[in-house]
Every structure is written in C-alpha cells, then in structure tokens.
Amino acid sequence: MRTQVAIIGGGPAGLLLSHLLHLQGIDSVVLESRDRGYVERRQRAGMLEQGTTDVLRESGAGERLDREGLVHHGLELRFGGAGHRIPLTDLTGRTVTVYAQTEIVKDLVARRLADGGDVRFETEAVGVDASAPSVAFRDRAGRTGTLECDYIAACDGFHGVGRPAVPGLRTFSREYPFAWLGILADVPPSTEELIYAGHERGFALHSLRSPQVSRLYLQVPPDEDIAAWPDARIWEELAARFATGDGWKLQEGPITDKSITPMRSFVAEPMRHDRLFLAGDAAHIVPPTGAKGLNLAVSDVIVLARALTERYATGSDTLLDAYSSTCLRRVWRAEHFSYWMTTLLHVDPAADDFALRLQRSHLDYVVSSEAAKTTLAENYTGLPIG
Ligand code: RFL
Ligand code: PHB
C-alpha cells in the first residue's frame, strides 16, 4: 500500500490535515485505532478561536458550523460573589465560537468520505519508520500491513506511537494538583457567555453546547473517584461556586455524561524527525482552562498542510524545515496562557495565605485594567497562525 502522506490518528488534527491536503491534490490515508462511533462521540473541547472557524469555513467544511455554532463576543470572570465581563470582541475585533469537537469530527469524517477519502477506522498504527518512510498497522480483522509514503503525520494524541519514534526528544511538563470533573446536562444554559469562576472551594466553569444543553466543570482533587459525585452533590457544589449576591440562579437538569480529566502541561521538542511530523496532542498538552488544545491542533496542521503543499508544488523544503520552530512559537504562547489562566483561577491546596492574597490581587487587576483585559482577550481569541 502506498500514499503520499500517511496520517496516524483520526481526531480533529488528522482529519483536518487529510481534508486540507485533498484540497491541494495531495493523497493521504488516515489510520484510526478506534471505531467511527467512538471518535464521533468522545466529549471534549467546545470553544473555537476565530482562526479555527475561519479554516473550517474557507476549506468548505463549515456549513453546519455556520448554522449551529454559537458566536460569542465576551466571557465572564466571576469571583468574590460578583461577575466581571471581558468584552473579547471590543478589545480584539475577534470572536470565539462554541461548537463541539464531536461535531467538527463528524463534519470532517463525512466530508472526507464524501470526497472519496481513505479513512480507516479500527486500524491501529503499530510501528513508525521515519526514514523509509512507512507505517506498520493492524486492521480490525487482526491483519497486519505496511503503508509506504513520502511523509508521516503523527496526529495520534498524547498516547500515540508517533512521539516515541522521535529520537533525542526533549520534553517539558507540569502536573497540577487538581483535575476537572465535567458534565453534560439537558438544561438550557444559565448564561449566554461562558463563566470562569474562581472560588475558595475551587474553580468552576459554565459552558454550553447548544441552547438546550449545558456543559459544566468543577475543580476536584487529581485522584478523585467519580463515584464520590452523585448528581445532587455536583449541582450543590456548582451552585455554591457560582453564587453571586444578585439573585442569579443556576438551572439544574438531568446529567447525561460525567467524567474526570487530569490537568497537565506538556511540550515535546522538536516536532519533527526526518520525514515524521508531530501535530496536536501528540506533541503538546495544555490544561483546558484557556480552551487552547483543539485550537493548537488546528494551527499545527494548517502550518503542516502549507509546508507539504509547497514541497509538492515547488520541491522546496523551506517550510517543512521551519515546521517545528514555527509551531513551537505559538505552542509556547498557548502553554503560558493556559498555565496563567489555570493558576489565576484554581485553588492550589498547598497555597498559603500570602499566595491567596496575590491571586486575588491579580484577579482584581485583570478585571480593572484595560491593558490586562486586552492581554487576556487577545490570547483567548487566538494569536496569529504561522
Ligand atoms: P486526539 O483528539 O486525541 O486524536 C488522536 C487520535 O489518534 C488516535 N490514535 C491512533 N490511531 C491509530 N493508531 C494509533 N496507534 C493511535 N493512537 C491514537 C486516537 O484514537 C484519536 O482518535 O488528538 P488531536 O487530533 O491532536 O486533537 C486534540 C484535541 O482533541 C484536544 O487538544 C482538545 O480536546 C483539548 N480540549 C480543548 N481544546 C480546546 O481547544 N478548547 C476546549 O474548550 C477544550 N476543552 C479539551 C477540553 C480536552 C478535554 N479532555 C477530555 C482532554 C475539555 C476537555 C475535558
Ligand atoms: C467546553 O465547552 O468544553 C470548554 C470551554 C472552555 C474551556 C474549556 C472547555 O476553557
């Protein structure tokens, strides 16, 4: 078997890369270890930067996004019993859009298949040769095979096989002393814009998926057992952390999905070895507080698709050679922003009174200074790609 670009992983990064390459007349095969239903239902990100919605729209994969995506112009920081709006669009001229990762994946799978794309579900990459180059795989029937190619894109997430195939990799990481308990609930959101709440009991986030479905998160200990959180306790804790002095009320409804996600920062450098390129969560992880993970995966593959397009069109390696350093500049900015939002809003169990006073002072500053609000807004809505 042979293709131009072998793509490991059918998450947002792998599927979008395959789609962008197809538009440039470049062939690819996507190998995805899970089945289609699993990939399309995995609950994850929800907040898209304008650069992410722009590329989906410009590449012809944004039709449903345009109909169903919810465009936001601001967010709320809530602490000390009061809300403070950050007017993202007034400060930056840009918007963000709530449209679930599950829906992006569904749209891209449908689009690749409609265009005759080769997306192989239940086909696991088991070996990577960055020099030959080729990918060894095992299909759903247990048969093994080899996919020969010109280039390999490892879009296989944090636990994939791509990153271990890069020799001499340098890694950087932080573990946080907390995790997020996330729920989906069949109840209209109690807010139009996202609420990021800092509270002495811990962080809470009110997000949404549609006018009928709310998505909420609670800071919990890193080793928390989900069984310790029956629905009633979740609603009670959310109400306590979002409470204000002005009669605002959190609406409750049936919880349809519940999970705990550990928080981690991680970067692997470089993002390339020979003909193997790492993209998305395969190369870096951010804690979800800044809503950057999916958006970084998208910006990586935009840079990679441009570089491969130049290579096939002109024979020039210039953009491919710059791939890792181009991506890492944006990655490190997002790493810093996500770390900053996380430490600004979460309760570190080891924090002493001095640290807590500094944190409160920082929050007061962010919501009262035009310069600080603008810094938050320009990072949140997304810095330029490439
Ligand atoms: P993915 O989505 O993990 O996809 C990788 C795919 O590779 C497959 N795979 C393999 N396939 C074949 N052979 C192998 N050997 C393979 N090994 C793995 C996997 O099955 C999978 O399908 O990575 P990708 O494409 O890089 O996308 C990254 C995003 O999924 C991730 O960054 C975001 O979900 C992070 N994230 C958020 N990002 C945002 O931009 N905004 C948000 O609001 C946001 N909220 C979140 C989040 C992540 C969360 N969790 C659960 C981690 C909220 C949460 C709770
Ligand atoms: C989400 O809607 O899932 C979401 C939104 C913003 C974040 C993280 C997650 O910062």
Automatic annotation (TrEMBL):
Keywords assigned by UniProt, alphabetized: NAD, Oxidoreductase
Coiled-coil residues: none
Domain FAD-binding: 2-338
SUPFAM superfamilies from the UniProt entry: FAD-linked reductases, C-terminal domain (SSF54373), FAD/NAD(P)-binding domain (SSF51905)
Keyword 4Fe-4S tagged: no
InterPro entries documented for this protein: FAD-bd, FAD/NAD-bd_sf, PheA/TfdB_FAD_monoxygenase
GO molecular function terms attached to this record: 4-hydroxybenzoate 3-monooxygenase activity; FAD binding
Gene3D superfamilies per the UniProt record, alphabetical: D-Amino Acid Oxidase, subunit A, domain 2, FAD/NAD(P)-binding domain
EC code: 1.14.13.2
Keyword Metal-binding in record: no
NCBIfam families: PRK08243.1 (NF006091)
Name used for this protein in its record: 4-hydroxybenzoate 3-monooxygenase
